[in-house]
Design goal:
This protein is an alpha+beta fold and 385 residues long. 50% of the residues lie in helices and 15% in strands. α1 packs parallel to α4 (66-77), α4 packs antiparallel against α5 (81-92) and α8 (230-266) packs parallel to α10.
Length: 385
């Protein structure tokens, strides 16, 4: 379908596709096998200016376009979702600073992030605070020297590799989620260390580590917004970031669809390519419809946000849920089309299948997000209501 992308968006998509096919494709299996962070690919993306697509020009970016970010994530995910999430997680760590940071904070940190010289990460999840983000226990105590942070964050993408972290911590434990605040923490700050690199089912090229804070002192000016705004800023951040996750899932599904079509045309059984079998044709047709529907939902939600919409919680949740369910369905069906060889590591479907599952879990499990969608529907006026 023609989504009437701007000339710049077309250039972003084409440039990313070239990088994905020429630089990512040859190394994706090795990086996955070694569980190695894709520094060389990150440098290539940085040299191409792609870390700046969602950052305004005044801070060294290309203009601050969420759809542009989605296009980059989609094209990278089409080849390797693990590499795509390493790129996308820097945006997740940047959005709160971009939307609610002071001009001084933005000028200090955004140019290095936009250029790719530094990666960012977002620290929210804890052992007892997954879908229930309001249950965080990490604290930030105000002193005359700044804030002292104590606690741990779990399963943080880009953990240990990022240089700039947005961290959510309690400044007033008595107020529960209303006592949470957002802070900027730099990697080499004393008292800030990292746990081991997690061993994951999929997206293995990305880094996932624990963040550990032990009397970590940061300057008072590193707070984003005001004390007590952390939970609100987090919810707004996730609303803005979920189309990017939808793009990851949708791009992954597109890659699996293309691989399945190619294999079905080459694989001969009973004297004919299996593409000639009606059962396979119906599977591919269903897969293609789901991928295109996911793309339409992701793009329209990103455009809604870029257009200045004030409330997009429902649409953001919808595109993440639908695209991630699509990724799981399409990679499962693609493996079925590949048959036994699809289960082997010599073929890309095995990796795509593993990579797909996490998209239904992180940045809000699909069950929780369905509840958010239903909650938003309660507020809508319906015919006769």
């Amino acid at each position: 379908m023609d989504y009437f992308l701007t000339e710049q968006q077309e250039e972003i998509r084409n440039l990313t596709r070239t990088i994905a096919e020429e630089k990512v494709l040859p190394v994706r299996a090795a990086l996955d096998e070694k569980e190695e962070f894709p520094w060389e690919i990150m440098k290539t993306l940085a040299d191409a200016g792609l870390f700046g697509v969602y950052i305004p020009e005044e801070y060294g970016g290309l203009g601050g376009d969420l759809l542009g970010l989605c296009l980059v994530v989609e094209e990278l995910s089409r080849v390797c979702s693990g590499i795509a999430v390493s790129y996308a997680a820097s945006g997740l760590g940047t959005f709160t600073l971009l939307q609610y940071g002071t001009d001084e904070q933005r000028r200090k940190y955004l140019p290095d992030i936009a250029s790719g010289r530094k990666l960012a990460a977002f620290g929210l999840t804890e052992a007892d605070a997954g879908s229930d983000a309001s249950s965080i226990k990490t604290t930030a105590q105000r002193t005359d020297k700044g804030y002292i942070i104590n606690g741990t964050k779990q399963f943080i993408t880009n953990g240990g590799d990022a240089e700039v972290y947005t961290v959510i911590a309690l400044t007033d434990k008595s107020r529960g989620p209303r006592g949470a605040s957002a802070f900027i923490v730099e990697k080499d700050t004393p008292g800030f260390t990292f746990g081991r690199k997690e061993k994951k089912l999929g997206i293995r090229a990305s880094s996932t580590r624990e963040l550990v804070f032990e009397d970590c002192l940061i300057p008072a000016e590193n707070i984003i917004g005001r004390e007590g705004m952390g939970f609100i800023l987090t919810m707004k951040l996730l609303d803005r970031s979920r189309p990017g996750l939808g793009a990851q899932a949708m791009g992954l599904a597109q890659g699996a669809l293309e691989a399945a079509i190619d294999y079905a045309k080459k694989r001969v059984q009973f004297g004919h390519p299996i593409y000639a079998q009606q059962a396979v044709q119906q599977m591919l047709g269903e897969m293609a419809m789901r991928v295109e529907a996911a793309r339409a939902l992701v793009y329209s939600t990103a455009r809604m946000i870029d257009g200045g919409a004030k409330d997009f919680t429902k649409e953001s949740a919808m595109c993440k849920v639908f695209a991630s369910d699509t990724a799981m369905k399409v990679t499962t069906d693609a493996m079925q089309i590949f048959g036994g060889v699809g289960y082997m590591r010599d073929y890309p479907i095995e990796k795509m299948f593993r990579d797909a599952k996490i998209t239904q879990i992180y940045e809000g499990s699909n069950q929780v997000l369905r509840n958010e969608i239903a909650f938003a529907l309660r507020k809508l006026k319906v015919l006769g209501g």
